[in-house]
Amino acid sequence: MNIVILGAGLMGRLLACELARAGHTLSVYDAAAADSRRAAAFAAAAMLAPLAESAVAEDQVVRMGQYGLTRWPELIAELDAPVFFQQQGTLVVWHRQDAADAQRFAQLLAATGKRLPSLPQQKTLDAAGLDQLEPGLGAHFAQGLYLPGEGQLDNHQLMDALLAQLQRLQVALHWNSPRSPSDFAPGQASGPDWVLDCRGLGAQPQWPGLRGVRGEIITLLAPNVTLSRPTRLIHPRYPIYIAPKQDGYFLVGATEIESEDTSPMSVRSALELLSAAYTVDSGFGEARIVDLVAQCRPTLPDNRPAVRRLGSRCLQVNGLYRHGYLIAPAMVDVVLQLMQGERSALAEEMDCHVADAPRNGGVTTVIASPSTLRQAQDRPSSGQAEARQSMPPDVQELA
């Protein structure tokens, strides 16, 4: 098939690689330059933490995150260039004065565990337990939580590896070339077979209600800090995460602002993030600030991802919000299934919102909804392997 993809961010690159590898002809259009780092995919720590995110996210996102944890190693293994991937769990710590907030956080995770028993259970740690996982933390914190099985990857390495793969697969890449679905006539003699719209905020003219939520991240080089796994600090004013990458680099973030402002990071945000990081490990006092990034993440009114049909041969994917790397593998496989039929078994299992785009202000027709989720929950959870087995053979080739 001849397929057009709009947007060369995380979703666009993942879909293009999967489809090109299956033998289809791909053309990818992006409004930015080839070397641009301003996409939302670059302003992320790429933590794969479904249980930790369950404190602020819907169960749908948690399920998709569980799926993603099993799918990411497969996706990365298909790439020629190495990509840092780690699955050593998440640590959550807090200062004594924030114990009440930590208790509420733990209660939220426990409630999620009851609803989704397939999630690994949180483990309570004392100072000695913290020191066993991360030497030195026990001197600063009396208690913590360990969330086993969670992971992270290096988003910059991944985006670069995906781009190199697209080039090797001879995908036609059109940079500085903004396009919209209306520029193509999929399914007609003169047009492509499919159009996949993965433009994020670039799709705002065609997707009312889509908004940007600002996020800010600092990259630090801190060779004296020995944290080896993502660590979250619970704080009433500025909760943060610290994501250690390779070669002494750390990403520090967590600010979330209801704004589409993409100007540089504010002094206040930088001070709060850096101060919080310093309280976790004083070694950050001698760290070097490598980069300060602010970008907006595409978000829908309910803060949940969605897929829309814009005609019979055009799919729009959007609203990944702050969970892009967590849920991207599930969203990719949902799209691949929808390209083969009206429904996606994975979308129904994950309660991924799939609908026809409203026409002329009409009502959206929901194809996968909470009711289909309840039906799916009556069946045994399929997991990734069974979900793939349920696909038709041609979809298994795509997925």
* Nearest-integer average pLDDT: 89
Low-confidence stretches: 361-399
CATH architecture of the largest domain: 3-Layer(bba) Sandwich
What is the name of the CATH class of the largest domain? Alpha Beta
Strand content: 15-25%
Q: Count the strands?
A: 19
Distance between the ends:
15 Å
By DSSP (H or I, 4+ residues per run), the number of helices equals: 12
CATH superfamily of the largest domain: FAD/NAD(P)-binding domain
Strand order in the sheet with the most strands: 9-2-1-10-17-16-18-19
Q: Give the overall form.
A: globular
| CATH overall fold name of the largest domain | FAD/NAD(P)-binding domain
State the secondary-structure class. Answer: alpha/beta
Tally of domains: 2
Helix amount, in percent?
25-40%
Describe the main β-sheet briefly.
8 strands, mixed
Provide the gyration radius in Å: 21 Å
Please explain how this structure is put together.
By secondary structure, this protein is an alpha/beta fold. The protein folds into 2 domains: 2-45 and 155-210 and 302-398, FAD/NAD(P)-binding domain (3-Layer(bba) Sandwich), CATH 3.50.50; 47-56 and 84-154 and 212-299, D-Amino Acid Oxidase, Chain A, domain 2 (2-Layer Sandwich), CATH 3.30.9. The chain is built from 12 helices and 19 strands. It has helices spanning 10-21, 50-53, 59-77, 99-115, 127-133, 155-168, 267-280, 324-338, 345-350, 370-377, 383-389, 393-398; strands at residues 2-6, 25-29, 47-48, 85-86, 90-94, 123-126, 143-147, 151-153, 172-174, 194-197, 211-221, 231-234, 240-244, 249-257, 288-299, 306-309, 314-318, 353-356, 365-368. The chain has an 8-stranded mixed β-sheet. An 8-stranded mixed β-sheet has the order 6-7-5-12-13-14-11-15. A 3-stranded antiparallel β-sheet has the order 3-8-4. Helix 1 (10-21) runs parallel beside helix 6 and helix 3 packs across helix 8. It is globular and about 70 Å long.
